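User: Run a structure prediction on this.
Assistant: Running it now.
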Amino acid sequence: QVQLVESGGGLVQPGGSLTLSCAASGSIFSIYAMGWYRQAPGKQRELVAVIPTGGRTNYADSVKGRFTISRDNAKNTVYLQMNSLKPEDTAVYYCNMAIATMTRKVHDYWGQGTQVTVSS
């Protein structure tokens, strides 16, 4: 089985910064795209940023220039550096990875979610 464990959420003042981490473990053969999504109360889950194995990262317009996604393939980990946070960034953040297990089948896996609250 594969598990994704997130960390790094919390309460931060507007203009502050947070870094989220998400580490995958288990029967992993290879990890393809990694990404972060978020869901605010009463809203649908939305893509925040995605980083493929090779190629360009992609960001939601609302976070461009403020958030940076990165990955450490040796650690099976994806990060989301969030700067200049705004109250509208408040949401539960979920990591997502496309992972091939030892059976070579590729599945989507999700983290448990971590709360980010931006408030003074």
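The longest strand covers residues 28-39.
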